[in-house]
Amino acid sequence: MRRLQQIGMLAVLLLGVSLATSAAADEATVRAARLVARMTPAEKIGQLQSSAPAIPRLGIPAYDWWSEGLHGFARHGEATVFPQAIGLAASWDPSLLHAVGGVVAAQARSQFLATGLHNDHGRFNGLTIWSPNINIFRDPRWGRGQETYGEDPRLTATLAVAFIQGLQGSDPAHPTVIATPKHFAVHSGPEPGRHGFDVDVSAHDLEDTYLPAFRAAIVEGHAGSIMCAYNAIHGVPVCALPWLLGERLRNDWGFQGFVVSDCDAVDDMTMFHHYRKDNAGSSASALRAGTDLDCGSAYAGLGDALADGRIGEHDLDVAATRLFAARYRLGMFDASAPTPRDNPDANRALALRAAGESMVLLKNRANTLPLKPGDRIAVVGPNADALSVLEANYHGTARKPVTPLDGLRALWGEKNVRYAQGATLADGVTVPIPSTALAGLKGEYFRDARLTGKPAMTRFDSKIDLDTDHTPPASVLDASGYAVRWTAQLLPPGAGDYTLVVRMDRCFDCRGHDPVRLYLDGHLITGSAGGDETLSATVHFDDTHPHDLRLEWEHSGEDQGIHLEWMAPADAQLAEAAKATADADAVVAFVGLSPGVEGEELKVDVPGFMGGDRTDIGLPSSQRKLLETVAASKKPLVVVLMSGSAVALNWAREHADAILVAWYPGEQGGLAVAQTLAGVINPAGRLPVTFYRDVRDLPPFIDYGMKGRTYRYFKGEPLYSFGDGLSYTTFAYDAPKLSTQSLKAGESLDVAVNVRNTGTRAGDEVVQVYLAYPDAPDAPRRALVGFQRISLAAGEQRSVTFHLDPRTLSLVDADGTRAVRAGRYGLFVGGQQPSAGQQPATFTMTGHTGMPR
Q1: Could you say which of 547, 567, 587 is where a domain stops?
Q2: Segment holding 737, helix H or strand E
Q3: Across residues 577-591, what is the average pLDDT?
Q4: Confidence band for 4, pLDDT divided at 50, 70 and 90
Q5: Alpha-carbon distances, residue 501 vs 386, 441, 525 (angstroms)
Q6: Among 145, 72, 491, 113, which residue's Cα sits nearest to residue 338?
Q7: Are 105 and 167 in contact (CB under 8 A)?
Q8: Measured between alpha carbons, how far is 134 from 184 in angstroms, rounded to an integer?
Q9: Does residue 361 form part of some domain?
Q10: Both 324 and 457 in a single domain?
């Protein structure tokens, strides 16, 4: 007993757990220390790597720490797919983020328990969720900006805390899952070169812009883990940066969880940063700095580091105890754990609510929207009927996804909706072959991975655009192995050269891709026995006569989906789009980007895109020509932007009748778009990023200085501002009332404002509060300090209050010191950023009070 008490006390000392820590948390730490004390050094090292092996003699099953839940439980089969994070941010609704986090957690735990509490759990089947991404979306060129909550520290922090609390639940000692805010810190592209990038960031920008959301995630959200990033700061890789992981994270912010590296970040320290000569040295540096868990296998080098004294066994004990304390808190070793209920109908309703709240109406000339119920609608654009723009990246497999074309047909009826794809996304980029070009597409589905015997099922499909990650394309099949034969008549819209492509979804740790074969008019034109991710063939058609098409797919590996795509002649597609508008009452064009051109470290190098990032923020020329073509019909033109980032819609702002930003809206996104166009949903989303006019308005992408970036420091004229968004109703504000017009540094300020719905429809309004600072060096032009999304019936009035604490009223000076400073301040309250000539409510601050880091 005395030995066990010593181990328990050692654990408390090792982890710095205060006496105020809850009894259950202490128990988890003590149990973890007891377990770690029984391990050999080699076993401890194994447990510090993300694919932690089983230790049968201690009753420890294998556990892979890597699971994802950015906007739905990801990469482990069917799960609710909510709007991409940037779309969730456009809701400006913390309660929504909390609810989404709760569904992610429930589905993750349900899948974990379904595998068996004491069984091995592989990748993406765990309770440690590596989300949210709370990096600041400082530049629209960054392809992963879609994963964030936008460009503002306050909006990002508020939404992050809500999402983390939704994930982890209300009991800190027994979280539903553990959240992992990432990527700590100062990480936002470029994607090419990210593994060895060194950020030269000022002390001011670090404290003012890049760290506040992470601080809130830990101090307010109490996230149980955090992920360190690939980049270095001032020459030191952040996963080996003692002042960041030790002084700031653990000492200043009181973090008691575990730190995990971004995947292969420790190996990057050797290979790309050249920080140490081998992985033993890099691993030792990271472990001593405070990185407990290596996503990868570089920590295998800790054995050599231990042998030559670069680390001690004490260092292994600290990290391993933190990790096993987390597993005990999660109930991974308990005899029983409650199985959460998965309510598909409620989750689908929440996905629809989330998509609806994310819609941002930027233009509505002459009340073009809502469209009338009996309107004949021409639907055009490469994003009208594509699965990828619903699911985005880091997603699960959507149940019954609804594309915009599906949604419009559901509300207006098929006879009132004419569809033409009209264009590809960009030059050199393929898109799914549309249903209009595949007549009689018959799918024969076989129960094994060979096309033999009688099909288990035959059905007619509209297109071949499938996500089958851990999920078969039909319920009669087993996910582990099946085969499909599709046959159809390919209907080219015009003469010319066509590139036909079979694309297999990226899979992780693949042994190889599934065998596929594509036939045209009975001839094999491309195929693979299982080695290629993308197969293509270019063919020429002299006319529009139909051609026999056959695609065979033998699924036996880890491929996560199959897509039949093309690049069709531009003139033929434009002509088809023009024809579709001939008898329409309105044209709805679905344009934008896709996760295939903006995203994480993509193999894309075409005009406007490189490696997952963008080199041009304008709408690709192929889509601009489509808009010009359909606008020539003189029919009302509604442009729906589907993307994960800001797109310079300069032509549309001038010529389109309405502009709606739908982001990547999740599994119910198509229905939400249709309901918004119909007026069933009154849009109230707000931009979480600035829409610039041209890439030339921005500083160099590699420059992490905030001067000239985001609404807080950009002095130019944006296309659309952060916080912008219209409604089908109108709102009016009384002058805001302050609790005082003079306060001392360290005191709080309360603000109240009356808001009225002055229109004829019920609607939501996002009340925004911006602080204008005294003439202080490095101060932002203005900064968001509060916001609330409220619902008002037609004619309803409500008083909305905000409490601004001293930290909210503080400033950061050039050396990174945050303090409340004397001076005269202004507050702007309204439904957007202050307009030209708007007068602020002013107050005076006296004295000076420093703020904790």
Answers
A1: 567
A2: strand 737-738
A3: 98
A4: very low
A5: 15, 17, 10
A6: 113
A7: yes
A8: 9
A9: no
A10: no
Report residue 322 as tokens: 């933190």
How many whole angstroms separate alpha carbon 603 and alpha carbon 624?
A: 24
Residue pLDDT, tens place only, 631-689:
999 999 999 999 999 999 999 999 999 999 999 999 999 999 999 999 999 999 999 99
Locate tokens 């695609």: which residue? 551
Q: What is the total count of domains within the chain?
A: 3
Q: Which residues does residue 797 pair with via DSSP β-bridges, in sequence order?
A: 756
Among the residues of 330-403, which ranges form H helices? 344-358, 388-391
179-237 confidence digits (pLDDT tens): 999 999 999 999 999 999 999 999 999 999 999 999 999 999 999 999 999 999 999 99
The residues facing 613 across adjacent strands are 610
Closest Cα partner for 426 from 383, 490, 378, 379? 383
In contact, 11 and 33? CB cutoff 8 Å: yes
Q: How far apart, in whole angstroms, are the C-alpha atoms of residue 14 and residue 5?
A: 14
Helices (H), 38-152: 41-47, 85-90, 94-115
Q: Which tokens hold the place of 185?
A: 């810190």
CATH number of the domain residue 756 falls in: 2.60.40.10
Answer yes or no: are the C-beta atoms of 65 and 128 closer than 8 Å. Answer: yes
**Coil, strand or helix at 523:** strand
The answer to the question of residue 532 being in a domain is yes
Which distant-in-sequence residues (6+ apart) come within 8 Å of 413 by Cβ? Answer: none
* CATH, residue 282: 3.20.20.300
Run of H or E residues at 328? helix 313-329
410: which residues sit within 8 A by CB, 6+ positions away?
402, 671, 674
Q: What are phi and psi of 536, to 5 degrees?
A: -145, 155
Q: Say which residues have a Cβ less than 8 Å from residue 772's Cβ, sequence separation at least 6.
A: 781, 782, 825, 826, 827, 828, 840
324 and 469: one domain? no
Pairing of strands 496-504, 749-757: unpaired
Predicted confidence band of residue 776 (pLDDT cuts 50, 70, 90): confident
The single residue listed with the structure tokens 């897509």 is: 563
Residue 553 CA: distances (Å) to CA of 423, 431, 445, 528, 651: 27, 19, 10, 10, 42
Does this model's pTM top 0.90? My answer is: yes
Domain boundary among 329, 351, 380: 329
Half-sphere exposure of 298 (CA within 13 A, CB side): 31
Task: Report the pLDDT averaged over residues 723-733.
Answer: 98
Structure tokens at 120: 């091995």
**Does 91 reside within a domain?**
yes
CATH number at residue 533: 2.60.120.380
- Which residues are catalytically annotated? 262, 598
- Both 189 and 299 in a single domain? yes
Q: What is the pLDDT of residues 79-125, one digit of tens each?
A: 999 999 999 999 999 999 999 999 999 999 999 999 999 999 999 99
Same domain? 439 vs 548: yes
Q: For 674, list phi and psi in degrees, rounded to 5.
A: -60, -45
Strand partners, 786: 769
CA-to-CA distance for 792 and 46, rounded, in angstroms? 56
How does DSSP assign 761-802, residue by residue?
S-EEEEEEEEEEPPS-TT--S-EEEEEEEEEE-TT-EEEEEE
Q: Rounded to whole angstroms, what are the CA distances from 28 to 31, 325, 708, 763?
A: 5, 5, 48, 47
Instruction: Examine residue 404 and state whether it is found in any structural domain, yes or no.
Output: no
Q: Do 437 and 319 lie in a common domain?
A: no
Structural domain containing residue 774 = 729-850
Please report which confidence band the pLDDT of residue 13 belongs to, taking 50, 70 and 90 as the band edges: very low
Contact 45, 302 (CB under 8 A): yes
Alpha carbon distance 832, 851 (integer Å): 29
Q: 557 or 554: which carries more pLDDT confidence?
A: 554
